[in-house]
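R.M. (postdoc): so does anyone remember the format we settled on? I'll just put the structure tokens first.
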């Protein structure tokens, strides 16, 4: 069940092509309190698409749907569908800088149109009871002053939005790719902190550049929540201690990497047995797990085995277990080598 009200101290960012339902199920193994977000889904896909763009596993709660759009009627309609499906929050994307998003009149370009965002918030809140939130940047292009950002926040908050997740970089809508927009514009944490100081009544979460739980704790001294994206995806096991260290849950138990592999193998098998998705392959799950052994002995072997054996026309149904066996064999060899080396060193000293 979701936490009510939602505890936003730590969340995982919506990442296109990454945070799908398989990824979110995997990440949920490490933390029961972390707020997870879907990939951005456009209103057009939900309303006119043939697929089920709102599907998720019940284990994923608390879970937010991130919507891309700018038409208040369509946004409200999709918010209603999200609430009916059981989402805990609907989030408006006002941060994505890609040309495709910009051409669709949503994403970061809406930073220059706070009235449009405000109208969407009003229309959505009139139809649903779940929170309607906004994920935005600190500015775009030449709109890169505290005053510009404050004006955006004031207008959207005035429409009823009380929760903002802020990527602490501005976006250049001309000249930089989406990847470059995540790296080149400098981080400006103080601008986000100042918004929280001037609007203590708002819930402000910060996103961008935070890589560790220690960094998270530092940010929580100035804001209400921290959202991490790429670092969690590359090294998901950093979430193993989130519930105890960030949420203060003394009863939380961290799961081992080995346990996570067993649970995800069962998850894969259940999908294969149910035959709900004719195109499902173990790789659809395994690709989100490449970083599980990041920084551990056998980590490279894990990544290589999954990559080499998870794709193709005849993927290995025991992919995760066989990859784990390869990792553990490598770890045993390393332990034996270290033991022999220590024994030899001890013998030389004596």
């Amino acid at each position: 069940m979701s936490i009510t009200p939602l505890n936003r101290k730590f969340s995982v960012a919506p990442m296109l092509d990454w945070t799908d339902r398989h990824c979110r199920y995997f990440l949920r193994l490490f933390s029961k309190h972390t707020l997870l977000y879907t990939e951005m889904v456009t209103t057009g896909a939900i309303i006119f698409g043939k697929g089920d763009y709102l599907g998720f596993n019940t284990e994923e709660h608390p879970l937010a749907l991130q919507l891309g759009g700018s038409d208040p009627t369509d946004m409200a309609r999709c918010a209603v569908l999200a609430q009916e499906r059981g989402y805990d929050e609907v989030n408006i994307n006002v941060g994505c800088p890609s040309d495709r998003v910009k051409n669709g009149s949503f994403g970061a370009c809406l930073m220059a149109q706070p009235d449009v965002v405000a109208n969407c918030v009003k229309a959505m809140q009139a139809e649903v009871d779940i929170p309607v939130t906004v994920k935005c940047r600190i500015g775009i292009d030449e709109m890169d002053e505290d005053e510009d950002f404050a004006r955006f926040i004031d207008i959207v908050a005035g429409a009823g939005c009380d929760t903002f997740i802020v990527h602490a970089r501005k976006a250049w809508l001309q000249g930089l790719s989406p990847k470059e927009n995540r790296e080149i514009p400098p981080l400006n944490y103080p601008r986000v902190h100042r918004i929280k100081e001037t609007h203590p009544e708002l819930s402000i979460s910060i996103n961008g550049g935070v890589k560790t739980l220690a960094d998270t704790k530092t940010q929580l001294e100035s804001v209400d929540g921290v959202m991490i994206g790429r670092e969690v995806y590359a090294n998901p096991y950093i979430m193993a201690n989130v519930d105890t260290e960030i949420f203060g849950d003394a009863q939380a138990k961290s799961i081992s990497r080995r346990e996570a592999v067993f649970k995800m193998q069962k998850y894969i098998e259940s999908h294969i047995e149910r035959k709900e998705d004719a195109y499902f392959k173990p790789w659809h799950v395994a690709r989100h797990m490449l970083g599980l052994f990041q920084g551990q002995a056998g980590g490279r072997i894990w990544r290589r085995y999954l990559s080499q054996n998870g794709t193709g026309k005849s993927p290995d149904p025991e992919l995760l277990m066989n990859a784990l066996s390869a990792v553990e064999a490598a770890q045993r060899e390393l332990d034996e080598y270290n033991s022999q080396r220590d024994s030899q060193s001890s013998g030389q000293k004596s």
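R.M.: ...and that's the designed sequence above, right after the tokens. Also worth knowing: The two ends are 61 Å apart (CA to CA). The chain has two domains: 10-245, 257-341.
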